[in-house]
């Protein structure tokens, strides 16, 4: 250890770290206005130069990166204020190694260095935050769409492990920081307004369209007392956005895959020489795998989002050595979605006509089925309304006890809650149908898959009610956390960091479902006025996709008002309760508690060697107890009530409780070498953990509500004894800070992960449930001449022949001539088969990659560029030719950013292009089968233009998705389209006034 400290630019190494971090924090403390001025020294003339705006924020970001222990990236102040970003996720995507998942054209969740959202920990001012997401009740991923970017001063992305970092982030730990008034004394205030024009709203049917232009407003007030002892900061924002997206795809994925030699009746293509084989072009070979579409539909979706954010910060500094802070943070997001869909189901009839591309794994280029009796054209309407609230109350005290000792205490109580914002529940659909579909063909050779039904006749076979489902989901997460930490300076160039924390986390979710399975028709067309269903030109909603103008495309998409039709259907069926959700009780009620106690210590020192370097060696100890409480809802019967689906009858409920615990010791070592005054080399080694998802931990067996005629039922059960994923990480980084706002960096990383929870599908019988498929009545129907694929024939035979016998009840005749009624599984019938998902610590994986990052400002021209590229890979890949359940890392993809910058005293311009390569999004498709879902590569261009009218008033113009990029997902081959989505550009014009 060195006796005297080496200095660079007149400051000791340890002191210059603190000074630079202080500058970065000061620059980050006030977001809505421009970044605070940064002061630099011009080496050519030896005078101070004041740097403002974008250049100041870039310099602040560089200081944060340069002076941290480990590899850290981030964005401060003006970076966020000036990026054309709707929320923090879109700001984060500019950082190398960070990719985002989009929902409705807006960033929602982040992936860092190939590790998905569940393995990235999000903190607010260093505190672990709860999160809820009704679209993923079991995930841990933080939904950034709840937070606007206006109220945030700084984003810090810690890519390497540190002893003082809370556990949970293998990809990264992301710290979201808000403003503190005493860090930036004096009066500072601003207000801003924006008008938002989302063009995706223009591509919706008239009855779904929202307002053409919607408002946004934000403001901040920060002030301190004259003596610097008191401070207050208040910030708030309110945003409304009316938008939409249009999607075409296979919601339930593909049936199969099957081997070309498979002879299973009713499930495969006819073999060569069999009837129907002449209708197959380029048939898959005996050893080839092929899949067949199960269903296909077009949907239009209108979304009204309202987001409110607010924060109050009170600070008191009774003496200069003690600073106390009380902060309250609130966010609320309401999302109302109206959707209409036109879709069809394929019955896998032997009278199909198809063409195939060739290859070992195939999906059809075109696929057509011919039916002996008219089939249904499904006309679905949905109404979803949810509200998510996040609230946090925190207290922080920092005490500089002596010149060498600094201690800090922090505590907070934070909640996140999501639930229904509508009397209809959170997710509700009315299914209607016209029973007039004959030959049905789908052509996958175009960008927009083209569905044709030339014989459809909705005039003579009008639309009638066919079924419905009303879902109500609720989720609440609570975190109570207390942390104490300290920093003790030792010797001349060393310090000791230490701390303890306790975290009590609870995540509870409930779910209820009210469903009518009268798929054969519950009403008569005369029950509805002729104007209730409105025909709209289908192709006009997909103009960005090739194939939208194909002459064979089915011409109409039907829309209706959900509330009106719900009331009419309830009246016509005499079943009002069946067309509303059940708020009084739940089918599923799950709660998971995690209580963690931890302590850490780390020792950092500067070394005066030939190449000066700094080391930080630490270890974190953590113990966690897991308690799972789950409602168990047993199934009592399987009832065949419609053509292809057999709903399960449930009765009674009980609760099961399971406990488990685990302990982890997590070492870390971070080194940074000062190769030159402007160049660093960093090396890091450490162990981090990522906790399993809630559904992986949650005990209690859960059955799916329906047994599918072809594939059987589904079920899931978690494992509370799962251990966290443990990752051993190696990182290396070279950084060259060759001017005040310019840098180049190269980084490489390698992660070895153990204890990955592998998802296993177990085929089993549950609750002694029997299915009528394969029973005595069923066999008699087959013996009478019905084929396995002709479910209408089988049902008609059983209902006619055995009405009144045990399990068989005929209730009438549908408009298409087929019989209505129920067929219940008997004790003598076969046991129903369920594919049950469960989990175990059985997988290991490695991820490695590299990043290159360049930030360059061209002298004093005002022009600059930011560019980065991230490469990630893993030998653990999904094998598309393997039909078994597989483990693979989700979200693994290369990514890149290119940002052009110009700024002078009046103007600031940024053009940002973000690209993400294709990645595996899921290993389970929409039908619950083990099958890959890939998200195709996607690139988006955003623009921001700012104009400073004077030092107080500025204007801004922003464009999101300027080139109107579309999104696509596919299956086992890139030609196996699962869905394509069209959004649209979004434009914003705004003004901000600083006081």
TrEMBL record:
Record region (Disordered): 256-288
Domain (TonB-dependent receptor-like beta-barrel) spans: 452-962
Residue limits of the TonB-dependent receptor plug domain? 65-166
Q: For this UniProt record, give its keywords in alphabetical order, as a comma-separated list.
A: Cell outer membrane, Membrane, Receptor, Signal, TonB box
Among CDD domains, the record links this protein to: ligand_gated_channel
The listed locations are:
Cell outer membrane
Q: Name the predominant localization.
A: membrane
Report whether Protein biosynthesis shows up as a keyword of the record: no
Q: Which residues form the signal peptide?
A: 1-35
- Say if the entry is tagged with keyword Membrane: yes
Please note every region of biased composition (Polar residues): 261-284
Q: Which Pfam families match?
A: Plug, TonB_dep_Rec_b-barrel
Entry's family note: Belongs to the TonB-dependent receptor family.
What name does UniProt use for this protein? TonB-dependent receptor
């Amino acid at each position: 250890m060195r006796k005297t400290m080496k200095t660079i630019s007149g400051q000791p190494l340890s002191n210059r770290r603190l000074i630079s971090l202080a500058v970065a924090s000061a620059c980050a403390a006030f977001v809505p206005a421009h970044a605070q001025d940064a002061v630099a020294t011009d080496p050519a003339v030896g005078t101070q130069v004041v740097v403002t705006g974008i250049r100041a924020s870039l310099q602040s970001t560089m200081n944060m990166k340069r002076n941290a222990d480990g590899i850290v990236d981030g964005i401060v102040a003006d970076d966020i204020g000036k990026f054309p970003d709707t929320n923090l996720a879109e700001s984060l995507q500019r950082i190398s190694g960070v990719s985002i998942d989009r929902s409705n054209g807006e960033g929602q969740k982040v992936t860092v260095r190939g590790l998905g959202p569940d393995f990235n920990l999000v903190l607010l001012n260093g505190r672990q935050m709860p999160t809820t997401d009704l679209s993923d009740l079991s995930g841990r991923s933080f939904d950034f769409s709840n937070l606007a970017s206006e109220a945030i001063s700084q984003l810090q992305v810690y890519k390497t492990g540190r002893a003082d970092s809370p556990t949970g982030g293998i990809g990264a730990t992301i710290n979201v920081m808000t403003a503190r008034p005493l860090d930036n004394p004096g009066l500072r205030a601003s207000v801003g307004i924006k008008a938002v024009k989302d063009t995706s709203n223009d591509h919706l049917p008239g009855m779904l369209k929202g307002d053409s232009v919607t408002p946004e407003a934000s403001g901040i007030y920060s002030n301190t007392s004259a003596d610097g002892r008191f401070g207050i900061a208040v910030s708030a924002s309110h945003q409304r956005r009316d938008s939409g997206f249009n999607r075409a795809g296979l919601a339930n994925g593909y049936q199969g895959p099957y081997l070309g030699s498979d002879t299973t009746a009713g499930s495969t293509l006819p073999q060569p020489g069999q009837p129907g084989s002449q209708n197959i072009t380029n048939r898959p070979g005996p050893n080839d795998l092929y899949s067949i579409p199960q269903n296909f539909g077009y949907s239009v979706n209108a979304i009204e989002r309202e987001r409110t954010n607010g924060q109050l910060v009170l600070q008191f500094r009774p003496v200069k050595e003690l600073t106390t802070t009380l902060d309250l943070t609130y966010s609320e997001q309401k999302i109302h979605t109206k959707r209409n869909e036109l879709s069809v189901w394929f019955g896998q009839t032997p009278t199909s006509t198809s063409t195939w591309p060739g290859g070992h794994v195939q999906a059809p280029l075109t696929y057509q089925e011919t039916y002996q009796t008219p089939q249904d054209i499904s006309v679905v309407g949905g109404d979803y309304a949810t509200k998510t609230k996040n609230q946090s109350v925190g207290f922080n005290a920092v005490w500089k006890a002596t010149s060498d000792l600094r201690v800090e205490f922090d505590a907070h109580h934070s909640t996140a809650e999501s639930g229904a914002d509508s009397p209809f529940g959170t997710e509700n659909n009315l299914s209607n149908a016209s029973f007039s579909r004959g030959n049905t063909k789908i052509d996958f050779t175009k960008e927009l898959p083209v569905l044709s039904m030339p014989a459809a006749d909705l005039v003579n076979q009008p639309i009638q009610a066919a079924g419905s489902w009303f879902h109500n989901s609720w989720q609440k997460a609570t975190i109570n956390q207390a942390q104490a930490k300290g920093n003790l300076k030792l010797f001349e160039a060393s310090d000791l960091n230490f701390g303890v924390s306790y975290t009590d986390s609870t995540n509870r979710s409930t779910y209820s479902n009210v469903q009518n399975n009268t798929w054969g028709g519950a009403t008569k067309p005369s029950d509805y006025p002729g104007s209730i269903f409105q025909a709209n030109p289908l192709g006009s909603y997909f103009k960005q996709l090739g194939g939208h103008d194909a002459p064979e495309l089915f011409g109409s998409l039907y829309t209706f008002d959900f509330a009106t039709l719900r009331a009419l259907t309830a009246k016509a069926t005499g079943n009002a309760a069946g067309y509303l959700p059940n708020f009084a009780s739940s089918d599923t009620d799950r709660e998971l508690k995690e209580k963690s106690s931890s302590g850490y210590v780390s020792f950092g020192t500067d070394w005066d060697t030939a190449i000066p370097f700094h080391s930080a060696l630490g270890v974190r100890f953590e113990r966690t107890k897991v308690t799972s409480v789950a409602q168990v809802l047993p199934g009592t019967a399987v009832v065949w009530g419609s053509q292809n689906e057999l709903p399960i009858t449930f009765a009674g409920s009980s609760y099961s409780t399971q406990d488990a615990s685990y302990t982890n010791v997590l070492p870390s070592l971070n080194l940074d070498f000062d190769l030159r005054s402007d160049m660093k080399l960093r090396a890091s080694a450490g162990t981090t953990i990522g906790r399993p998802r809630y559904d992986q931990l949650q005990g209690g067996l859960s059955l799916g509500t329906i047994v599918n005629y072809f594939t059987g039922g589904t079920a899931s059960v978690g494992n509370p004894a799962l251990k966290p994923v443990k990752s051993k990480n190696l990182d290396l980084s070279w950084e060259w800070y060759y001017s005040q706002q310019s840098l180049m960096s190269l980084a490489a990383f390698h992660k070895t992960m153990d204890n990955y929870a592998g998802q296993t599908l177990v085929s089993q019988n549950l609750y002694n449930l029997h299915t009528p498929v394969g029973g005595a009545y069923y066999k008699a129907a087959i013996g009478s001449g019905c084929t396995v694929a002709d479910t209408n024939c089988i049902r008609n035979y059983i209902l006619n022949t055995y009405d009144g016998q045990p399990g068989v009840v005929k209730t009438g005749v549908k408009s298409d001539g087929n019989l209505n009624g129920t067929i219940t599984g008997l004790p003598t019938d076969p046991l129903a088969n369920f594919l049950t998902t469960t989990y175990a610590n059985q997988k290991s994986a490695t991820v490695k990659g590299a990043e290159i990052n360049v930030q360059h400002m061209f002298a004093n021209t005002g022009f600059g560029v930011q560019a980065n590229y991230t490469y990630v890979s893993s030998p653990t890949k999904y094998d598309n030719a393997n039909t078994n359940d597989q483990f693979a890392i989700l979200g693994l993809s290369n990514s890149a950013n290119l940002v052009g910058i110009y700024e002078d005293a009046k103007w600031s311009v940024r053009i940002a292009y973000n690209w993400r390569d294709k990645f595996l999004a899921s290993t389970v498709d929409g039908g619950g089968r083990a099958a890959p879902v890939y998200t195709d590569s996607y690139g988006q261009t955003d623009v921001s233009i700012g104009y400073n009218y004077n030092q107080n008033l500025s204007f801004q113009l922003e464009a999101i998705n300027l080139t109107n990029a579309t999104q696509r997902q596919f299956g086992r081959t890139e030609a196996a389209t699962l869905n394509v989505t069209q959004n649209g550009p979004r434009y914003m014009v705004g003004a901000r006034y600083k006081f």
